[in-house]
Design goal:
The protein is mainly α. It has one domain (14-479). The chain has helices at 3-10, 14-33, 38-57, 76-102, 109-125, 130-148, 155-186, 191-200, 206-222, 232-238, 241-264, 271-292, 299-319, 323-348, 366-369, 371-384, 391-405, 409-435, 448-463, 469-479; strands at residues 65-67, 72-74, 351-352, 355-356. β3 (351-352) and β4 (355-356) form a beta hairpin. It starts with a helix and ends in a 5-residue tail after the last helix. The mean pLDDT is 88.
């Protein structure tokens, strides 16, 4: 392969290559300088993600191109979803910088693991082959397993990492076995060849259907959709709060992007086989997310069940199997990114005498001691509840509208009812902050980094209705890159 051909092959992957090389160099810097380099490595990792985002932005209007022998695909949809992942990861690292300034023993490995997991997410979003899909998922997952157990001195963190690893290994095994079944019955793992094969086939072998179901199971685990959500509450509660914020946004965006591409591209002609499965998973996730959160006392567990419900709404857009549904998914995920990271940013600041507190009642009277923090949290809660004119309303509006256009009336109505139920526990938090008396005030110290993230997230979430056209237009262009 000559230099020109190599450059053409790697040009669509500049962001991935840049992150990979940067992670290796920063790892060497951390090894030689030790944990005293933790803050510098985190700051440089944040810059790496910003630069990678700029490189990815160049691909927003690119003509679809397959590279590395057709293993990876770059088009406007993959580019936009990568931007969301990079944006979520950048916001989390900014929060981590503020956390490290108060941490007595910061460790440089944290941002390195974030970079490696982001690299896996970018690769899985661009996967154009079942083998590339699996490699991207495993690169992401292995880093996430370590992040979940990052606080080695905390028993709950170690337990969270172990649970996530064991259940994740089972899910990965099922996904890999499903891919092997599909290869065995079709003779290929390439997305384009699979789409062409299924488009011409009069009958689909039972083995292909079983393999597809197993792949769906593996992907459901990665996005924590019912009934493969069992790890989510324990891992969210046990993992360090910055890790939980990262889990709630970036991996879910990457997982949903892969979900959309896998089902609409290679298996788009098998909609009759998988649509009912996705409808069931969507409805079950919305209902469990709404009702299971009602009895929670831990804010992190409540947000864990809330995230399960939000995945259900995103899957409702996928079940619609139309361009409007994918557009709704993109809008929903972009807005959910800000809501979730903002909410976990507030949780990260919940400290009393320097120690973190995570009970919902600890938010009592927050409006009197931290009025700006309470206002930000109220915006996030109203938005998650889907109350207009907050940003979350637009996300739910677009996915429910797409479901109605696809004549999925029952799932759409269930989604609306689940939203009403979930509004109870979101509004309960607002009531605690503004109407209840504070039992013991939280620490007043709020770093510049947390202030920056919360201000950005709350302003965009609260004022999105003033100019929604920008995101809607970009989502429409990204959705148009997929086959329907």
């Amino acid at each position: 392969m000559d230099v020109m051909t190599l450059q053409q092959t790697l040009q669509p992957l500049h962001a991935e290559l840049f992150i990979c090389l940067s992670a290796l160099l920063l790892l060497l810097a951390g090894v030689f300088r030790g944990d005293k380099s933790a803050l510098d490595v985190t700051g440089l990792s944040t810059i790496v993600l910003v630069l990678a985002g700029y490189m990815t932005y160049q691909n927003l209007d690119v003509t679809p191109v397959a590279t590395l022998g057709g293993m990876l695909l770059v088009n406007p949809f993959t580019a936009f979803m990568k931007l969301l992942v990079l944006g979520a990861s950048t916001l989390v690292l900014v929060l981590v910088i503020g956390e490290m300034k108060t941490d007595k023993q910061p460790r440089f490995e944290f941002p390195i693991l974030v970079l490696l997991s982001v690299l896996g997410m970018l690769l899985m979003i661009s996967a154009n082959n079942l083998i590339a899909l699996y490699r991207g998922i495993e690169l992401m997952s292995l880093a996430l397993y370590v992040l979940a157990a990052f606080n080695r001195e905390n028993l709950r963190s170690s337990e969270a990492g172990l649970k996530y690893f064991v259940l994740g290994a089972i899910a990965s095994g099922m996904l890999l076995y499903g891919a092997s079944l599909i290869y065995g019955f079709t003779g290929t793992t390439d997305f384009s060849l699979l789409a062409a094969l299924f488009g011409k086939a009069d009958m689909i072998p039972v083995g292909v259907t079983i393999g597809l179901v197993m792949i769906i199971i593996g992907l459901c685990f990665k996005v924590s959709a019912v009934p493969f959500h069992m790890w989510t509450p324990d891992v969210y509660e046990g993992a360090p709060t910055p890790v939980t914020a990262f889990f709630a946004a970036a991996p879910k965006i990457a997982g949903m992007a892969l979900f959309v591409r896998v089902l609409l591209e290679p298996f788009g002609h098998l909609g009759a086989q998988w649509q009912q499965v996705i409808i069931f998973v969507s409805v079950a996730s919305m209902l469990l997310g709404a009702f299971a959160a009602l009895r929670q006392t831990s804010i992190k567990r409540l947000l864990a069940y809330s995230s399960i419900g939000h995945v259900g709404y995103a899957l409702l857009g996928l079940a619609a199997m139309n361009a409007e549904g994918v557009q709704g998914i993109i809008i929903y995920l972009a807005l959910y990114l800000l809501m979730s990271i903002g909410a976990f940013g507030v949780v990260l600041l919940m400290r009393r005498r320097g120690k973190p507190v995570e009970e919902i009642v600890d938010l009592s009277g927050l409006s009197r001691t931290h009025p700006k923090l309470a206002l930000a949290m109220a915006i996030f809660m109203f938005s998650m509840a889907g109350i207009p004119p907050m940003a979350g309303f637009f996300g739910k509006f677009y996915v429910v509208t797409a479901a109605v256009q696809a004549h999925l009336y029952v799932p759409a109505v269930i989604g609306l009812l689940a939203s009403v139920v979930s509004a109870y526990y979101y509004l309960r938090i607002v009531k605690l902050m503004y109407l209840d008396e504070a039992t013991a005030p939280l620490d007043k110290e709020i770093g510049m980094e947390a202030t920056l993230v919360l201000t950005l997230a709350s302003v965009v979430t609260g004022l999105f209705f003033l100019y929604p056209t920008f995101l809607i237009t970009m989502a429409d262009a990204a959705a148009a890159a997929l086959p329907f």
